[in-house]
Amino acid sequence: MNANREHQCDVLVIGSGAAGLSLALRVAEHGKVIVLSKGPRSEGATFYAQGGIAAVFDESDSIDSHVEDTLIAGGGICEKETVKFIAENAKECVQWLIDGGVPFDRVENDSDEAPRYHLTREGGHSHRRILHAADATGMAMQTSLQDNVHNHPNITVLERHNALDLITADKIGGDSDTVVGAYIWNRNDEHVETVRAKFVVLATGGASKVYQYTSNPDVSSGDGIAMAWRAGCRVANLEFNQFHPTCLYHPESRNFLLTEALRGEGAFLRRPDGTRFMPDFDERAELAPRDVVARAIDFEMKRLGADCMYVDISHKPADFIEKHFPTIHAKLMELGIDMTKEPIPIVPAAHYTCGGVMVDQRGQTDLSHLYAIGEVSYTGLHGANRMASNSLLECVVYAWSAAQNIIDNINSVELPSSLPCWDESQVTNSDEEVIIQHNWHELRLFMWDYMGIVRTDKRLERALRRIQLLQQETHEYYSTFRVSNNLLELRNLLQVAELMVRCAMERKESRGLHYTLDYPEPAEESGPTILVPNKLSE
């Protein structure tokens, strides 16, 4: 075991999605960049984003309208200055993606001299302002950014490397409020290494893996939020977790989303006995808003003790279904489900983390030289609910803003001369990996039941007690055995789960994505929920 391997760079970027790669490309002309990727570099939420990216490209649209739509969707607690900042810089940052080769769909018969982009409209938007690449915008963005990063001599991508913890300057006789690098776990040959850096950027995505059902890839385990909190950063609004109402319920495909267009084309939601239930909850039935539908499905599952509900479009002609939903039809047929003849099993799934590490408009956290951009951060853009296609936009605008701030300061910051090595002299190899697996499943199950779509004070108290018990067990395990990928992710998920539950316990109202039976109405006055390290009530 070699624990002394050390890397050095000007900027360490933790995460390889839209936010991390955009920032890496912007700063690479000014210094050496290392990008950490937990798995293959494409395995992140960006790659799976279907919708698009919002920006005002149409003359009939306006920045003021984009701002207003976002504020309404955010349930009254967005930071208005942040929303305005992002909307004003949206077009320029999206144009940077276009100049970098992202193939957004164009209007047919447009000219290369003055291309016009096909703009679509999604929930919450009052105008067509969504640029997209068919229904795989994230894949197009990720692929283009990866190609540009691969060809840049100043950027090194380390695949299958987890960030383990941030290193602050007090470890080398300096200030505890300054970040100087990170410990990283090399999964290829299983040892801990250090990275010295002038600046560290968290671009680790969200934390939806804390739930039993999620649309996110496996890497979305809240690592950046947990690391920042342990280092001393504030977090905010982690009670707001967006759930997609219809995710396929099947053991061989745990994160396949079934588009809302199914219901738009006449699909019904049914109980296991075949009866419809949405008319009991909302006069708009299956066409009610996403949060209403998700709550109704959750309610019926809990009431009946059922594993899933069903979406059923089999009453429509088979050729109609195959024409309108060819991708879904083909995927389901692979799994032995014929949607032209039978209902499809579904559950709601955790989709997006609206809160995160608190940052300013430059992406700076509470610690010097530490930035957080993308889904890991709380900028104030989303408020109590995220509007469609604002998330990829937040990634690229804050990548630009943070990059500019880093570039302005890169020559005035000194690279730390040395960092302490990781000490594993007191630990051994584990022979009890089953403990991690058991705790992992227990956490994701009770977070779904107690901190899910509908909450109560009692459920939140139960969740917190169980989290604290698992944290004790995991801490003992972490202190005794060498690290592993599952152990690192469990440690981080438990930390983020605690922060989510504590945020939810602070909010004595229902607003946006946070719905509690004990306080079903919104409060007259409200704002963000902010947690401060070392000040949590026991």
Automatic annotation (TrEMBL):
Its main location: cytoplasm. It comes from the Bacteria. This is L-aspartate oxidase. Its EC number is 1.4.3.16. Gene3D superfamilies: FAD/NAD(P)-binding domain, Fumarate reductase/succinate dehydrogenase flavoprotein-like, C-terminal domain, Succinate dehydrogenase/fumarate reductase flavoprotein, catalytic domain. It is found in: Cytoplasm. The active site is at R290 (proton acceptor). Keywords: Cytoplasm, FAD, Flavoprotein, Nucleotide-binding, Oxidoreductase, Pyridine nucleotide biosynthesis. One of its GO terms (biological process) is 'de novo' NAD+ biosynthetic process from L-aspartate. It catalyses: L-aspartate + O2 = iminosuccinate + H2O2. SUPFAM superfamilies: FAD/NAD(P)-binding domain, Succinate dehydrogenase/fumarate reductase flavoprotein C-terminal domain, Succinate dehydrogenase/fumarate reductase flavoprotein, catalytic domain. Catalyzes the oxidation of L-aspartate to iminoaspartate. Belongs to the FAD-dependent oxidoreductase 2 family. NadB subfamily. Residues 10-392 form the FAD-dependent oxidoreductase 2 FAD-binding domain. Pathway: Cofactor biosynthesis; NAD(+) biosynthesis; iminoaspartate from L-aspartate (oxidase route): step 1/1. It is an enzyme of class 1 (oxidoreductase). Residues 441-522 form the Fumarate reductase/succinate dehydrogenase flavoprotein-like C-terminal domain.
